[in-house]
What we know:
By secondary structure, this protein is mainly alpha-helical. It has one domain (10-95). It has helices at 10-35, 44-64, 69-95. It starts with 9 loop residues before the first helix and ends with a helix. The mean pLDDT is 85.
Amino acid sequence: xxxxxxxxxxxxxxxxxxxxxxxxxxxxxxxxxxxxxxxxxxxxxxxxxxxxxxxxxxxxxxxxxxxxxxxxxxxxxxxxxxxxxxxxxxxxxxxxx
Length: 97
């Protein structure tokens, strides 16, 4: 992907090990929302806002760094597609209470 060799750094090693844990926890939250949207309907708009922020951050940093569209465009698209799904379906989750 164009990365050069990086010298060993304990702090970088730490961050690279805790980041997947944090991503897994957030992913689990989204999984719970997808499995039981009626139960967690109040949380849907908040998680939609988180996805918008993440999409904007990914897009802005990808453009700022001059990255090729692959791989960051897929991540940006997934964030915005997820938000679209949340916004379209959040009212139906509340209507079924």
